[in-house]
Amino acid sequence: MSARDGTIGxxxxxVGGIDRVTGAQRYLADLSVADALHAKLVTVPVAHARIxxxxxxxxxxxxxxxxxLTADDLPxxxxxxxxxxxxxxxxxxxxxxxxxxxxALVVADTKEEAEAGAAAVRVDYEALPAVFTVAGALAADAxxxxxxxxxxKDPRRxxxxxxxxxxxxxxxxxxxxxxxxTIVERRYTFPMVTHFAIEPHAFMAAPDGDxxxxxxxxxxxxxxxxxIAGLTRLPLSRVRVYAPDPGGxxxxxxxxxxxxxxxxxxxxxxxxxxxxLTLEETFQAVRRASCEARVRTGFTSDGRIAFHDIExxxxxxxxxxxxxxxxxxxxYPAAGPYNVPAVRIVARAILSHTVPSTAFRGFxxxxxxxxxxxxxxxxxxxxxxxAVAVRLRNLxxxxxxxxxxxxxxxxxxxxxxxxAAELIGWDQPCPPGHxxxxxxxxxxxxxxxxxxxxxxxxADGSAVVYAGTxxxxxxxxxxxxxxxxxxxxxxxxxVTVAMGDTALVPYDQQTSASRSTVLMGNAVLAACRDIxxxxxxxxxxxxxxxxxxxxxxxxxxxLASGRELxxxxxxxxxxxxxxxxxxxxxxxxxxxxxxxxxxGAPAFFEFNxxxxxxxxxxxxxxxxxxxxxxxxxxxxxxxxxxxxxxxEGAAIMGLGHTLMEHYIFDEEGRIxxxxxxxxRIPTSMDLPRELRSEAVENADGxxxxxxxxxxxxxxxxxxxxxxxxxxxxxxVAIRDLPLTPERVWRALQAGPVxxxxxxxx
Amino acid sequence: xxxxxxxxxxxxxGTRRRIAVAPHHTLLEVLREDLRLTGSKECCLVGECGACxxxxxxxxxxxxxxxxxxxxxxxxxxxxxxxxxxxxLAPIQAAFLDQGGVQCGFCIPGQLMSAHALLAxxxxxxxxEIEEGMAGNLCRCACYEQIFAxxxxxxxxxxxxxxxxxxxxxxxxxxxxxxxxxxxxxx
Lengths: 761, 187
Hints:
Oligomer: heterodimer
Strand order of the largest sheet of chain B: 2-1-5-3-4
Radius of gyration of chain A: 27 Å
CATH superfamily of the largest domain in chain A: Aldehyde oxidase/xanthine dehydrogenase, molybdopterin binding domain
Helix content of chain A: 25-40%
Strand content of chain B: 15-25%
Number of helices of chain A: 19
Number of strands of chain A: 28
CATH architecture of the largest domain in chain B: Roll
Number of strands of chain B: 7
Shape of chain B: globular
Structural class of chain B: alpha+beta
Order of helices and strands of chain B: EEHEEEHHHHEE
CATH topology of the largest domain in chain B: Ubiquitin-like (UB roll)
Number of domains of chain A: 3
Helix content of chain B: 25-40%
CATH superfamily of the largest domain in chain B: Beta-grasp domain
Largest sheet of chain B: 5 strands, mixed
């Protein structure tokens, strides 16, 4: 383990960690607000329904029930919101569009009274035909999920295709017509999975003077502030969002869900209202888009990829949320980290009567990477070329514009591939019955960004950092404290990081896309440098020197003479008897680029190589992961332990959708496995026998000290690497996730697909 | 409408408490809402996630599955009772911090209580014993390896003193000690 002292590149104990091990950490549901009322959602148990009448009279007659809020109680027309399309109603109006779409909110004195009230609300509805598969949504007679009047200018408004994203370069058909190519065409499916943060989503709102205060388990407090201000027609300054550290988020807590309904209820009642979702309700609030992909790839005889022709249908939910962006951004780098002369990627976002899909670690990339990397694996098998060799042959090298007009390859990716191959022992014989697989993945980092930070260097040399990032477990607070401690020469435990209150902390666009170390990190760094400039003026005056003869860096004041002064000494003398402090302002801006399909080239790529060694129990279909190696290009690990934990966490989360996780639907589009008993995520019994996470560090990232974002990469490659390992061990190719024992066992019974190469045994 | 309540007595983290509880309220509800001990977390409410794990008379249990009235007379240890009254962290808490066994932290109170019970039963647990002993506590951040390392660190130091009770498996969980004295567990 690295040093623990808090310096850059060391792994100090997590800032804020003590409260997390003593139970003192206050998550949203732990907060106690005087006079708070409790809310419960009212839903109907079908995927799609016409709401005829909602009768709250029986509920209102129950003890403690204060309000049954329905669409009729809200401003007309129904206020809508959404980060991309403004298509989501505060409460369902006229129709419900997925199982769990709330038609009313019951507010009562206690949680139990709210639950009893919700059960007593009578909803007359008629179940309507629903679509919950790609085929169903695209059928000629499919019911429309979205009212066409919400997108009157869209030529697709009379279909369930919300959007189509096309990325292309080179001439795919000409490339495919080249003589002598081996062309592999395969179809893959990726299931609907849910975030399953251990903290269910929770919301609270209260009148606050002339405005409103909102508490949410949100990742993007500033975005929520804007949403609520828009819906309530309040100025931003009268909407105060408190965002306590989320208890896990993974993308599911990026955008507003039921905060608007809670706000309207609180303003109507003039009292605080809280809504803590159950896990089952959370399953019906957020999920990842499922995907059906067809990949046609041409290989030359020596293993070069001549073209990729990729079609992916992502099944998003009933409202857009951020899902169309997920489809567009996630499919954009689908050709992978390779130099491919001809590429065509067509990705469609298809609406359905299902839970609105949203951002989820990997942001649309894991679905398509599963298909494309698996196809490369199958191509290598047909050609008889080693799976590592075929990838190295096509891999982009630093500076290569592997996606024309986009950010060039920004890392020594080959190092990561070679390291992963070495660590899994790729060139060593595999133990009998075991098989190995390897996969590569990239994900575009943030394409735009805006982060402000204020840093205050207090009179004693301690510091307060203000950062609007959410620390949802990734450890942003610790890394920002490390940056400030390093720049200002303060011990780590003299730095406090203030987050989660829009009235006090300056604007941050969002906590997503593994951006915070780079974007907010640079803002914190800039604020510290602003302070350093003021210290330099101070020191020059104290020493009677020109400012040119003073430098302030790395926590020290250095004079031209070579003498070094502690910052604290200069500060104390400079502030004088009145004391006070020095404030610094930092801003990190990544502007949108006109004409770029993603509105901007990514600030960095996340690159990962994962290698897996697996064994299959032929009697049960159970898969044992013996070894799981993940190597990510992180630029510079500012906190190596946190880097490893994020990398391992992404890897194990990837094992979830690879081996066990999926929503199971009944014939009417209802989720049959709502909740923790029937929806399984990896436990301590499901881990690889050996899990190894390594980082490639060349200090070549755009973040502080050469860092890059890195929290998602290790999730991108798990499924293709695991399936390739199973293929290697058994000869059986499975192209549908998850690789459950039943699915694997059935595939083993069916035997190798005709024409497929045999496995190792 | 007045709710029926039943008087019960609990010793929570070494303090004797007499409270009137609704007969259908779980121990988790009573801890979180009546006693305002919010360290024990609420997630699945069906005994699958382990976020609400506490020790009842030394047995690790999911507090969401135990009615408060069932715990009448019991000694209950929650995460708030692990550190000594002067704030000194218990070895298992310090080990979680040292090894990085904490990310978002939401599952950690339950993980700590299960780890505490595991070490009581197996002062020097094998990897397999750790995996099995912690299988009831989900961590979606998935810092399982660091949690295992933390348990290893705590085991390498002094395991919790359990008042001389032998290890004993139980269908419902692991046992940390039959009696938490009025002072709480001595560690």
